[in-house]
Amino acid sequence: MALSKRQLFQKRRLRVRNKLRKMNAGRPRLSVHRSNKNISVQLIDDVQGVTLAHASSLEKDLGVVGRNNVDAATKVGSLIAERAKKAGVEECYFDRGGFLYHGKIKALADAAREGGLRF
What we know:
- It comes from Psychromarinibacter sediminicola.
- One of its GO terms (cellular component) is cytosolic large ribosomal subunit.
- Belongs to the universal ribosomal protein uL18 family.
- By secondary structure, the chain is of the alpha+beta class.
- The protein has one domain: Nucleotidyltransferase, domain 5 (2-Layer Sandwich).
- Strands 3-2-1-4 form a four-stranded mixed sheet.
- A hairpin with a 4-residue loop joins strand 2 and strand 3.
- The longest helix is centred in the first third of the chain and has 19 residues.
């Protein structure tokens, strides 16, 4: 029986998360969520269960015309890097969830790297 798109997404998401748990050395996790209209990211400390920083394309100060495009993802990536530095985080793991690493997800990761985050 063939799996649905949602089931394949869930399998990918769990596979990525389990790999991150195995190599977790106390570093926070940069978790990405992409919907049809927006993209959001949060920096999570799994040891304490606390969100250290977050950014989203819904924020008014980004000035994004189309919220779900590569430009918006780039701005969100640079914004999360800036907020992570304010929170005292320089190194983290990139949790792409079940999303494939290309397009908006890749643009967000590259912008966060350029902003100074290491992963």
